[in-house]
Structure formats: C-alpha cells, structure tokens
Design a protein that fits this description.
The chain is an alpha/beta fold and 240 residues long. The protein is 44% helix and 18% strand. α6 (137-152) links the parallel β4 and β5 (156-158).
C-alpha cells in the first residue's frame, strides 16, 4: 500500500470513529432528556378519574405516566417509581390481601406491594366506601380490616384531588404548604435551587425574594433547619 492510500485509509477510519462518537453523544443526550421516573396508572376500566392524572401537565413535568390498561397489563414493575390504583372493587381487594393474583389488575397490584413500591389509592375509587351507611356494622368492619392491612403495608388512601401534591411532595396539600398560602403571585412565585446541599440560608434567601415554591434537584439534601424554615414560612419544596 503506497503512502497516499495509507493516509486515506487512516483518515477514513478516524472519520468513522468520530461519527460513531457523535452518534453515541446524541443518543446519550436524548436518553437523558427522556429519563424521568415513571408512574403507573393501574385501572380495571376506562372512564374513571385516571385520565386527569394520566394527562396532567403538572405530573408530566417530573414523571412519565403510563396506563396499565392501555399496555394490556404488560408492565415491568421494576421500571416504575409508584403506582396509582383506580377501580379497587371488593372482589379485587379480597384477592389482593389474600395473595390471589389471578388477573392483570391484581397481579400488578400485588407485584407493587411485594416489591415495596409506593401505591396511591383514591378513596373515591374504593368500592367498599360506598357501603359505609348501608352495610351491617360488623360485616363492614370485617371488610375494612382488608383496607387497614393495605394501609399498614404502605398504601396511601386519599381524596383524588390531593394525589398530585402527595405524589410530588410526599405530603397532602395542607401539610405540604404548612398552612394556607395566600393565592397571590408573590406567594406562588417559583424559585429553583440547583445546589446539592440546601441550607436554611438558601431557603431564607428565596423567602426574601417572595418564593412560595422552591424547586430543587431530585437528589438534593435539605438540612433540618432548612426544612423547619420552609415549614415556618409556608414554602413548598418540590423535587423536580
């Protein structure tokens, strides 16, 4: 091989390698942009309030939300951070607490429980609650023990309107805001803090700028004094 052919071959290989690296960088950037934790909407039928969360812009900012029914219950539970379960019938409740996972709904619910996933359950979607005033007291208490077992296992039962705040902050709206926050532009002003460790001084600085909501990184660590200050000043902390 003459010198010109050798140089050409070297240049060709270098060019191929550079193009390969560029393609890998683009793939990594796209993956990072799409890499959000996942929420699974678990339901037995369409038509419930699940679409409010499934299509919520507020949740979409932080999570990729998927519908188990649309996926025909073909879901890998390891991929999800939390589950929001709708349509909890008395039949499904009885099966789940007794470890009977004989359909897509009960199987995914059971997998979420056994793998320690956070499960949110809208109280409007619990069929048992519809019989509070009708069912014999002793029988109702017996079935309520099933729900109590789920709650003791970590399932959070709350009104549907509270779920978004519970998912984003881990606390219901009244607690997350540490009291009522005035509905003004200043009170609801959002400020982002990108530090890894956030101190009382950082929260105080944001408070002086009239922040009502402070957004922090997913792995940010708040000191105890920072949390106390935020609670005292009625500032909501959101992990983005």
């Amino acid at each position: 091989m003459d010198i010109d052919a050798l140089v050409s071959e070297i240049c060709r290989r270098v060019q191929e390698r550079m193009e390969s690296y560029e393609a890998q960088e683009v793939h990594c950037r796209n993956s990072q942009c799409q890499e959000k934790p996942k929420l699974l909407i678990l339901n037995g039928a369409h038509g419930s309030g699940c679409h409010e969360l499934l299509e919520s812009p507020r949740l979409a900012e932080y999570y990729n939300t998927e519908c188990a029914l649309l996926k025909e219950y073909d879901c890998d539970m390891a991929c999800y951070e939390a589950v929001i379960a709708y349509d909890l019938t008395n039949e499904s409740l009885g099966k789940i607490v007794n470890g009977i996972f004989d359909n897509g709904y009960t199987q995914l619910f059971g997998e979420a429980l056994l793998s320690g996933k956070k499960i949110f359950l809208p109280e409007e979607e619990v069929e048992l609650y519809r019989y509070r005033k009708k069912a014999p007291k002793l029988y109702y208490q017996r079935l309520s023990a099933n729900l109590k077992l789920l709650q003791d296992s970590g399932v959070v039962i709350a009104p549907n309107w509270e779920l978004q705040t519970l998912i984003l902050t881990g606390r219901p709206p009244d607690v997350a805001c540490s009291g009522e926050v005035e509905n003004t532009d200043e009170a609801q002003r959002e400020i982002s803090i990108s530090k890894h460790i956030i101190t009382e001084k950082d929260i105080a600085a944001a408070h002086r700028e009239k922040a009502g909501i402070i957004k922090v990184e997913p792995r940010a660590i708040l000191t105890d004094l920072a949390r106390e200050y935020a609670d005292k000043q009625k500032i909501m902390i959101l992990k983005r």
